[in-house]
Design a protein that fits this description.
Blueprint lengths: L2 H7 L2 H10 L12 H28 L6 H22 L7 E2 L2 H15 L6 H28 L11 H18 L1 H5 L19 H20 L5 H18 L21 H11 L4 H33 L5 H17 L6 E2 L1 H9 L6 H16 L1 H6 L2 H15 L2 H9 L6 H16 L2 H20 L4 E6 L11 H10 L3 E10 L4 H13 L4 E12 L1 H16 L4 E4 L12 H9 L4 H8 L2 H5 L4 E2 L2 H15 L20 H9 L2 E5 L4 E3 L7 E7 L2 E6 L6 E7 L4 E2 L13 E4 L3 E7 H10 L1 H30 L1
Parallel strand pairs: 4-5, 5-6, 6-7
Antiparallel strand pairs: 1-2, 3-4, 8-15, 9-14, 10-13, 10-15, 11-12, 11-14
Helix pairs in contact: 3-4, 3-5, 3-10, 3-14, 3-15, 3-17, 4-13, 4-15, 5-6, 5-12, 6-11, 6-12, 6-13, 7-17, 7-19, 7-20, 9-10, 9-17, 10-17, 12-13, 12-14, 12-20, 19-20, 22-23, 29-30
């Protein structure tokens, strides 16, 4: 009876294994809409092939015009290889991978630097330089896999956009400068700085062909939407060149791309052989290779992650960014070993693919397959491409690469520029032009840190006020009110925001030093808006503690919730600890030793308790005040004669409360009103989603609480518990109802007094709301 079940269950395990190894071949299904996948692949191929050829021309031109053909084929094959690997194993089924401007420029720059080193002369030296550059690609791929292993898939969001914009603009200018000689028909040996001296060598025909190709692309982009403008421009320029050649007029048009050598690309064995001849590598070579590999890994990863974010928005799927990094790193290792150019996720190509209807990995796979067939079956086309046409194509690519956001500020005028952001854009552009893309990447990352620290290093002080400003909250404790009116100016509450780190603590320490010169001896640091601290932040608390102690005062930190949870071995509990950040400051100060130096009692869960801690210290360190104040009539008894008070006391129940005893809890039914005779109680409310309670106020002798029981039948909105031995009287709700009939004048006076108490508490609530919004 179980045979059918067993036979049906067997295919499940291979399918699960397939979905783990090749997830994009399983979901979304490849054959759901094959017509749309083919349409998307054709559109993507037409958009990506011209770009790949242009980037390959940049790389090949770094060694000389005779190497452009090899560079183009290496770029097209790299697009096919990395595209197929990313489509099968990557973190998003719609990813389209291929050579990108930034990585190809870094590759070309390092290749040019290697070729200029001693010992890299002639074709054999150029081939050795290319082998070392391919080793950079392998190393970059390994670094990308390391990024994925370290779970760095979401770090792209931490790179400021002005740095990215500066890099894009610098790359666009480099592409333009690299094509000046080709467009003008000037020999490669001629320096750009010497261009005014060799202007007579400019070939008008070459210049016209290149600019005409660019013009055709720009014009067709506006008039013809069905066919990519790059295809139209290249076709028009190539036809014009060969028509002139048929008429014997191609002599001044710059020539065509050199054909691919008959042997094709070198083999991985050739790469190993070339590299073995270079060992040991000297410092000059390593100084070029290592920064280039790091730069290509960073730029390729950034491109891949930005493409994944764009695809997620378009396809409503969620990419596995770490898997994407690992896959593209592995693809670049293969590309480097097989003498191909590195690839990375391309937002522009993926957008074309998805907009044409593709949703599964079939579209990228067909794109890669058609690109491979194009290279293998139509390699002769490469040899027919005029160099000036490729230069015109690169002109348009460079213009498209310019960052539109930073360009828009030039239209608004310099007065409307965000100076810090534009400075970042300009600095990265200058580094790109003055040095190279490798240095620009380092400058960009360094500038990222500098900008972050500069913006975070502003004064962390939100506001500062004396403790007697809290008097409006304390309407139920006359004794405390009088104490704060006298000693409040010596207690300063300093609200801090941001992070307590090395860039901000100097301003905090300077502010408190200034307060101490004006008579402040006790400081409460309100850390409600501080989520993190470093060793410098912990050390400044220790220094402030020492300074205030020397002056006879104390330092108390508020909103540092005590870490009460043990460190269990349960994986669930450990994961819960990681998710909860309310007690992070406590853990930081505990690990840094600050808790031991300052004292655990100096870290309180809110400002009210922190100020109360200062009050206790002042009471303990100063002589008792002479002359007790006259007794103050409780607000609830205002206007009642002795007979009315005796009547009221006759229906009330006397309660003796031990320290910590709960009178009622939030959510309990409203069954009575309470009047404090002696002692103090604490009113707290539960904070939703946590186990914390926020202290609202402390009520002392003569105060009333729970009065809503006689007005509103809804459950209790707060907790009330005794904080010391106390005595209070309880008036049950049913007894209050009975008084309405037997002593209406008494009840009327009680309701009037309750209304006055409400008004006072409403003013306190308004103050609390204003503080929360400030």
């Amino acid at each position: 009876m179980f045979e059918g079940i067993v036979s049906e269950a067997r295919p499940v395990r291979p399918r699960r294994l397939l979905s783990r190894l090749l997830p994009n071949l399983v979901d979304p299904p490849l054959t759901a809409k094959p017509g749309r996948e083919l349409t998307g692949a054709l559109a993507c191929l037409m958009a990506s092939v011209p770009q790949s050829m242009a980037y390959g021309a940049i790389v090949g031109a770094a060694l000389g015009y005779n190497w452009i053909g090899l560079g183009i084929v290496a770029s097209l094959l790299g697009a096919a290889l990395t595209g197929a690997v990313a489509a099968m194993f990557g973190g998003n089924a719609s990813t389209v991978t291929g050579p990108r401007a930034a990585t190809c420029l870094v590759f070309a720059a390092s290749l040019s630097q290697l070729a200029q080193l001693p010992g890299f002369d002639g074709n054999q030296g150029a081939l050795a330089a290319l082998a070392l550059a391919q080793a950079e690609v392998v190393l970059a791929g390994i670094i990308q896999v390391g990024f994925a292993a370290l779970r760095l898939g979401r770090l792209a969001g931490f790179i400021p956009y002005p740095v990215v914009a500066g890099f894009l603009n610098g790359s666009a200018i480099l592409i333009l400068l690299s094509q000046v000689r080709t467009l003008a028909g000037i020999p490669k040996q001629a320096s750009l700085m010497a261009l005014p001296d060799v202007w007579h060598m400019i070939q008008p025909g070459t210049l016209a062909l290149g600019l005409g190709t660019a013009a055709a692309m720009l014009l067709s982009a506006r008039l013809i939407k069905a066919v990519p403008s790059a295809v139209i421009g290249m076709a028009a320029g190539t036809l014009a060149y060969h028509a002139a050649d048929a008429l014997g007029m191609a002599g001044g048009l710059g020539g065509t791309v050199s054909p691919l050598p008959d042997a094709g690309l070198p083999s991985p064995a050739d790469l190993m052989l070339m590299l073995s001849q270079q060992w040991p590598l000297d410092s000059a070579v390593l100084n070029i290779m290592v920064p280039a590999a790091l730069s290509m890994a960073a730029l390729s990863s950034l491109d891949a992650l930005l493409a994944s974010v764009t695809l997620d928005a378009m396809t409503l799927r969620r990419s596995d960014c770490n898997r994407e990094l690992a896959t593209q790193g592995f693809a670049n290792v293969l590309a480097g070993l097989m003498w191909m150019l590195p690839g990375s996720g391309s937002t522009a190509r993926a957008v074309v693919l998805v907009k044409a209807g593709s949703r599964s990995a079939l579209g990228p796979l067909v794109t890669a397959a058609m690109g491979l067939l194009l290279v293998l079956g139509m390699g002769w086309v490469v040899a027919m491409l005029p160099r000036a046409v490729l230069a015109g194509l690169l002109l348009v690519v460079a213009f498209d690469l310019v960052d539109k956001w930073s360009l828009s500020f030039f239209r608004r005028g310099i007065r409307n520029w965000p100076l810090a952001d534009m400075l970042a854009v300009g600095t990265v552009m200058a580094a790109t032009l003055a040095f190279n893309l490798v240095v620009a990447v380092g400058v960009g990352l360094l500038l990222t840190l500098v900008v972050f620290v500069a913006r975070m290093a502003r004064s962390p002080i939100r506001r500062c006020y004396p403790a007697n400003a809290l008097a409006a909250r304390i309407h139920g404790d006359p004794e405390r009110l009088r104490f704060l009116e006298r000693h409040g100016p010596t207690i300063a509450v300093v609200e801090v925001e941001g992070a307590l780190f090395f860039g901000s603590v100097a301003a905090l320490e300077k502010k408190i030093d200034a307060l101490m010169t004006h008579g402040v001896r006790h400081v409460v640091l309100d850390l409600k808006r501080v989520k993190d601290a470093d060793a410098s932040g912990a050390r400044v608390l220790e220094r402030l503690h020492a300074k205030l102690t020397r002056e006879g005062g104390i330092l108390v930190a508020a909103y540092v919730e005590r870490e009460r949870r043990a460190r269990p071995s349960s994986g669930i509990a450990v994961e819960r600890r990681r998710r909860v950040g309310d007690r992070r400051l406590w853990r930081v100060f505990e690990q840094m030793g600050t808790m031991e130096v300052v004292g655990e009692d100096r870290f309180q869960p809110d400002v009210d308790r922190a100020v109360a801690r200062c009050e206790s210290f002042i009471r303990a360190s100063t002589p008792a005040e002479d002359g007790a104040d006259d007794a103050i009539s409780p607000a609830i008894l205002r206007g009642l004669d002795r007979a009315a008070v005796r009547t009221l006391m006759a229906v009330m129940t006397r309660l003796e409360l031990a320290e910590g005893e709960v009178v009622f809890a939030q959510g309990d039914p409203p069954d009575a009103v309470y009047f404090i005779t002696t002692g103090k109680v604490e009113v707290t409310i539960n904070l939703t989603g946590t186990d914390r309670k926020l202290r609202v106020q402390t009520l002392a002798d003569g105060s009333i609480f729970g009065e809503m029981a006689v007005l509103d039948p809804k459950p209790r909105s707060a907790n009330v518990a005794a904080i010391e031995r106390s005595v209070c009287h309880r008036l049950a709700a049913e007894d209050f109802e009975a008084l309405k009939h037997s002593h209406p004048d008494l009840v009327f006076q009680l309701l009037e007094n309750i209304a006055l108490i409400f008004a006072e508490r409403l003013r306190a609530t308004n103050l609390l709301l204003a503080e929360l919004e400030a």
